[in-house]
Known about the structure:
Elements: E1 6-11, H1 17-26, E2 30-33, H2 35-43, E3 49-50, H3 51-55, H4 70-77, H5 83-91, E4 99-103, H6 107-112, H7 118-123, H8 128-138, E5 144-146, H9 152-161, H10 168-193, E6 213-219, E7 229-234, E8 246-249, H11 255-268, E9 275-280, E10 283-289, H12 293-303, H13 305-308, E11 311-315, H14 321-327, E12 332-337, H15 342-348, E13 355-358, E14 376-381, E15 384-389, E16 401-402, H16 410-423, E17 431-435, E18 438-443, H17 449-462, E19 470-474, H18 482-490, E20 492-497, H19 504-514, E21 517-520
Parallel strand pairs: 1-2, 1-4, 2-3, 4-5, 11-12, 12-13, 19-20, 20-21
Antiparallel strand pairs: 6-7, 8-13, 9-10, 9-11, 14-15, 16-21, 17-18, 17-19
Amino acid sequence: MAVIKRALISVSDKQGILELASALAKLNVEILSTGGTAKLLRDNKIAVTEVGDYTGFPEMLDGRVKTLHPKVHGGLLGRRDLPEHVAAMQAQNIPNIDLLVVNLYPFEATVAKPNCTLEDAIENIDIGGPAMVRSAAKNWKDVAVLTDAAQYADFLTELQANNGAVSANIKFKLSVAAFNRISNYDGAISDYLSSFNDDGTRNPYPAQVNSRFVKLQDLRYGENPHQSAAFYRDLCPVPGSLVTAQQLQGKELSYNNIADADAAWECVKSFNTTACVIIKHANPCGVALGKDALEAYSKAFQTDPTSAFGGIIAFNVTVDKAAAEAVSKQFVEVLIAPEYTKDALALFAAKANMRVLKIDLPKGGNTPWEQGRNSHDSKRIGSGLLIQTADNHEISQADLKIVTKKQPTPQQMADLLFAWNVAKYVKSNAIVFCGNGMTLGVGAGQMSRVDSTKIAAIKAQNAGLSLKNSVVASDAFFPFRDGIDVLAEAGAVCVIHPGGSMRDDEVIAAADELGLAMVLTGIRHFRH
């Protein structure tokens, strides 16, 4: 391994750079630097040579041209193992540069500011930095490249352990990280610039989308054993999202586990009181509120004990010993909560295969990101991608319109809002019967809303639950009165749905005829 003798440092973010440069100086590494970085090093008594002095060419054009010089790129790109490269560099008096430390102009942070102008964005497009990073990363066998302050500590440990040298394996990993950084940087620039319309306004959907994800793990297989799969996360994951989970015990998550766990967690964290959600095949088969985790789980489990077998269970509160004892009586694929007591974890330890995940709840804020929600959703189709804003719409009682003669009671109104929130996470056509803060029957994914209603009623009957005096949520309007007839026959007395059908008057008249209270939201929640 060749010893690092010369480093070029040019960083926008100065975090950790003094410690790195100081350590390099102690290893007798000659340091080249630019502008503000060079001044910082000099001010802290670290020997440094300005790049302009090194190349004999002054920094110019307000800093746009300072490292774009053969003496810089030749020093980074020259191969030490090729005699013709070595001879050419000697003939032109180009020394080797063995280490490059660069982080780029803060383009992403600049365009994230609400008052960012196109001029601001353009001035924060780095040219020399990415050019140097690409040169160093291409020549990784001879040059190490650092593009993130988080790399400094491990790099110094490696350097000091090897008397100033770095292994080829480490240099290759740093090269890959460098190319990934350049890809992400260029993607962000493309996304931003592609969002401008001809008149200078911005379109929320850019002309080109550059998706960027980081692999968390390879999976044993996909939805089915003959499919391969891997699990990726966003570059900047939403706080409190599934990809931030800490797995405390159990087997590796499968493709289906991850999809179902996400459905469970997204649903349960939408409630601001103690809740439990049980998911099976991406649909809630039981959701309930309770005074504590045990009560919420017990009520959720009652909805559909058969489907709950092998399901995914999520809580939005700490799981204590009492709740753990109840959960442990069943076969559970994945359990999710923001926290567990020691007694609870001790009980789960006896079920070694059960996957136990801990996810911190988002702290809340004004934006979907701060609230722990994606701002956009996407769906892959044949050679294409559908992108939409995420369904983050929430309603309150003040948003509702009562359209029948009969008025819901306060308890019924609370159950209607609860049912409506659950329906948002059920595959369309969704029908959800509820009462007393728990689901009583869930009909999901049917081509006919009437069939969903019948299935929900059958589910309740199979679980031994009465639908008498229940409330019902439908994710979309009732196109005909037949759906109203079926849910009334099942025992429901209140229904909440968007409205908007050309036959709304007919449907409302049916509700009045049957003595139902009907509430309209004006918002549809299809989930395909």
